[in-house]
Design a protein that fits this description.
EC 1.1.1.22; UDP-Glc/GDP-Man_DH_C; Rossmann fold; about 45% helix; alpha/beta; 2 domains; about 425 residues; about 15% strand; binds uridine-5'-diphosphate-glucuronic acid
Length: about 425
């Protein structure tokens, strides 16, 4: 089996490397010559645990290659995966499909024998059909089928998610294409991964439904957390108490500063737009989007309140700025709302992030970046844990207290317990728990 993976962003690179690990011949194609050059040298442009070794191993084995030349990448390919970006369009928040359609035109020109064209990027319902129309228009003679194969990878655990997924969703009407996809995913059949074979439109919608459901679940527990604070209840016990019900499930019930990242904010908004366009509005999701936006903005107020209502002239130490741990991704990270709001209120923000600082420096001007967590805390009036990197879970609290001007901690990820923080002598506030 041979495939071409168009786009070496997060999805394309991880999927391409993982397919090559399955024994498939994979050629990854990207227009960015600098990126392809770096990948050829074994330099991985994104931070994803395990990806480095996976790429190096498969390149050495001759199963994984990189090129800027689409024709070369597609030579002899049984399937071509479109894994280019689908950013939110400025103005209306809908997914910008220009890269997907551009790729379809170019793919059309290079189809040789029977080829399955698979959309892997998250694309609104109807995109696969449009890809089909484009290819048919450019190359009426081409022998091809289209399929949708959305990915459910989480940043930070993408390789495990690809290798041992809860399910694989494949949407196509063609039996030939189905057979091709079965062959590609053969190793997953061996471990009895459920494969949902369905239509193109259903597969496309399934991806959005999954992400919006998870975003809704998080938003639900975040609102319950706010209520817990008012009535003196503990959100973690509520989450456990409901999550043990198999119909609800334990996962994605961790309260926090609001969901961020490259997927949930973009996908919730895009689904809202699709639903509005076809006259079947998703009012729950509209509300989720609104609540989450407000929540991220409101987080700075918690920090200001913990500082006695005033941060003007004070130093706030921020630990973690990426949207979640084990990534350097800053897209829609809560820190992008929190830090500027603190600065606007007059605070001096000193921050540390194990991986995100390089990216964040451009996005968060005026922040003083430090080399480690303790340097950020030194002389600070308050410390806010914004991303739950493991190294923030085991801070030496005695040292933290000695270093800070005042022992005040706002824990937006609930990595510490109110009891241990009280015992350590901190004024401590967290999310949804009696303090
Ligand atoms: C998400 C989905 O989990 C993947 O299944 C999907 O493939 C991916 O989007 C995508 O569409 O490409 P990801 O954005 O990498 O993956 O990150 P998650 O681990 O899902 O976290 C998303 C956000 O939700 C983060 O800001 C995280 O802090 C927040 N979150 C997550 C919570 O606040 N509470 C939770 O209990 C879980």
């Amino acid at each position: 089996m041979r495939i071409a993976m168009i786009g070496t962003g997060y999805v394309g690179l991880v999927s391409g490397a993982c397919f090559s690990e399955f024994g498939v011949q994979v050629c990854c194609v990207d227009k960015d010559a600098g990126k392809i050059e770096r990948l050829r040298k074994g330099e991985i442009p994104i931070y994803e645990p395990g990806l480095d070794e996976l790429v190096t191993r498969n390149v050495a084995a001759g199963r994984l290659s990189f090129t800027t030349d689409l024709a070369e990448g597609m030579r002899g390919a049984n399937a071509v995966f479109i894994a280019v970006g689908t950013p939110s369009r400025r103005g209306d928040g809908h997914a910008d499909l220009s890269y997907v359609y551009g790729a379809a035109e170019e793919i059309a020109q290079n189809i040789e024998g029977y080829t399955v064209i698979v959309t892997k990027s998250t694309v609104p319902v109807g995109t696969g059909r449009e890809v089909e129309r484009i290819i048919r228009r450019v190359r009426p003679d081409a022998d091809f089928d289209v399929a949708s194969n959305p990915e459910f990878l989480r940043e930070g655990s993408a390789i495990a998610d690809f290798m041992r997924p809860d399910r694989v969703v494949i949407g196509t009407e063609s039996e030939l294409a189905r057979e091709m996809m079965r062959r590609l995913y053969r190793p997953l059949y061996l471990i009895e991964t459920p494969i949902v074979m369905t239509s193109l439109e259903t597969a496309e919608l399934t991806k959005y439904a999954a992400n919006t459901f998870l975003a809704t679940k998080i938003t639900f527990i975040n609102e319950i957390a706010d209520l817990c604070e008012k009535v003196g209840a503990d959100v973690h016990d509520v989450a456990r108490g409901i999550g043990l019900d198999g119909r609800i499930g334990k996962k994605f019930l961790h309260p926090g500063p609001g969901y961020g990242g490259s997927c949930f904010p973009k996908d919730t908004l895009a689904l809202v737009r699709t639903a509005q366009q076809v006259g079947s509005p998703l009012r729950i999701v509209e509300t989720v989007v609104d609540i989450n936006d407000r929540r991220k903005k409101a987080m700075a107020d918690r920090i200001i309140a913990a500082c006695g209502g005033v941060v003007d002239g004070k130093t706030v130490a921020v630990l973690g700025v990426t949207f979640k741990p084990n990534t350097d991704d800053m897209r829609d990270a809560p820190s992008l709302d929190i830090v500027p709001a603190l600065q606007k209120a007059g605070a001096h923000v000193r921050a540390f992030d194990p991986a995100g600082a390089h990216e964040a420096e451009k996005l968060l001007p005026g922040v003083e970046w430090t080399k480690d967590a303790y340097a950020a805390l030194s002389g600070a009036d308050c410390v806010a844990i914004v991303t739950e990197w493991n190294e923030f879970r085991a801070l030496n609290l005695t040292r933290v207290k000695e270093l800070m001007k005042r022992p005040v901690m706002v824990d937006l990820r609930n990595v510490y317990s109110p009891d241990e923080m009280a015992a350590a002598g901190f004024a401590y506030s967290s999310i949804g728990r009696p303090s």
